[in-house]
Amino acid sequence: MNIKGYLSTAAFLLAIALSGAGCGSPAGPETQSTPEGPVVAWFNCTGYTVDLYFPRSDSLVSNAYTTGEVPGDILSHEEGTIAVLNSLDCTVQVFAVDSTGSQLLSVQLPSGSNPYHMSWDGNSLWVTLLLTSEVARVDMELGGSVTLFDTPPNPTSIASDGGMVFVGHGNWPDPSVTGGISVLDASTGDLIDSIATPDNVCFMEYFSSTGKIHAVTCTYTGDGRISVIDPLTMGISTQIHTGGSPCRPTETPAGFAAGDGWSSGSLFLYGESGALETWNTGIASSAGVACIGDTLYVTDPLSDLVIMADIQERTLLDTLPAGSSGPQGIRSLQR
After folding, report:
1. DSSP secondary structure string for all residues of 165-196
2. What is the mean pLDDT of residues 255-274?
3. What are the Cα distances from residue 186, in Å, to 138, 165, 167, 170, 297?
4. What pLDDT, in 10s, does the model give residues 121-161?
5. Is there a contact between 138 and 146 (Cβ–Cβ < 8 Å)?
6. Which residue from 232, 177, 236, 172 is spatially nearest to 204, judged by alpha carbons?
7. What is the pTM assigned to this prediction?
8. How far is the C-alpha of 193 from the C-alpha of 76, rounded, in Å?
9. What is the pLDDT of residue 26?
10. How far is CA 133 from CA 61, 102, 129, 162, 218, in A?
11. Which residues touch 45 (CB under 8 Å, ≥6 apart)?
12. N or C of the chain: less Cβ packing under 10 Å?
């Protein structure tokens, strides 16, 4: 089923910002070696670049890579590599963080599909295609070959555990679909189950340490919930009512954390048992979070900064200037 043009609320606001700013892709960076050790990588959504920060040497590499048009997701899919998903030119780019500049691979997805979010199951990248009601399986061992599978409308978020793929559904562009999760067989793409959730599944993340999937639902009216899902039972074991607009969660030494998106700079610190603490940090916005040790890295697109915060002491440590505007999605990598 083909679905015509809609970008979700966040992507729609981003498109407005892009049209007003008239940004173009910057010149490509030079190839050079990067420092050793763990890496924090984030994309600048209106600058079309990726920055790298190396905590061990306190080294910030601005504009390490040039992305495609409107980067919308980032993940670490193998040791030392990151993948960036670009919504408008419908590509997945793969970069090795041991050097800047050139990409390892670029994969073309269907034109006009608005690829939205990614997950990694150990062998393949999975991508939701919002406007064509499909998911794409990108086989990295076969040079990025793409297989498409149909899904119910409005596929937004995605998580995979190797055997199954969990596809979250939003409330646009087909207004008859408001949410829920479809469960697909990873080998065939067949629909095998569904899970009822609150409206508009915005983000999902599979945490191998607990074997659970965290599904974030939000209609941007302070109703944001994080549902903890057990893939074995296909049931929701816990729901955390944040009272905000949470984004993709990350694991921390004390549990999990999610930012409040463009709504505020608050951080939601929670556990799978249902415990919740809201940390009002005082920063402008908290669109993305990543963690290394006790340090949280929080992207603040309204201030063009990445904030370093001590999650144990609940204190702000430092700021990192984004190499270009709109830092948003962020991931940490161990090397």
Report:
1. EEEEE-SSS-TT--EEEEEEETTT--EEEEEE
2. 97
3. 12, 6, 11, 21, 32
4. 988 999 999 999 999 999 988 889 999 999 999 999 999 98
5. yes
6. 236
7. 0.91
8. 28
9. 37
10. 37, 32, 6, 22, 20
11. 14, 70, 71, 72, 301, 326, 327, 328, 329
12. N
DSSP letter at 113 equals -
Please list, in sequence order, all residues whose beta carbon lies within 8 angstroms of the beta carbon of residue 8, skipping any fewer than 6 positions away. Answer: 116, 130, 156, 170, 172, 202
pLDDT digit string, tens, across residues 207-249: 999 999 999 999 999 999 999 999 999 999 999 999 999 999 9
11 or 189, greater pLDDT: 189
What is the pLDDT, as a whole number, of residue 28?
59
Report, in angstroms and rounded to the nearest whole number, the Rg of the chain calculated over CA atoms.
Answer: 18
Residue 51 β-bridge partners: 42
- Tokens for 56, please give them: 């061990």
Gap between the Cα atoms of 279 and 19, Å rounded: 34
Question: How far apart (Å, rounded) are the C-alpha atoms in residues 270 and 310?
Answer: 16
Q: CB within 8 A of 183, min separation 6: which ones?
A: 164, 165, 166, 167, 191, 192, 193, 194, 195, 234
DSSP 142: G
What's 9's DSSP letter?
H
Containing H/E element for 17? helix 9-21
User: Omega before 38 cis (within 30°)?
Assistant: no
Residue 254 half-sphere exposure toward CB, CA atoms < 13 A: 16
Q: Taken in order 134, 180, 156, 82, is the CA torsion positive or negative?
A: negative
Which secondary structure element, helix H or strand E, spans residue 134, and what is its range? Answer: strand 134-139
Q: Of 4-13, 63-72, 198-207, give the lowest mean pLDDT range.
A: 4-13
Which residue type does 205 have? E
Paired residues of 266 in beta bridges? 280
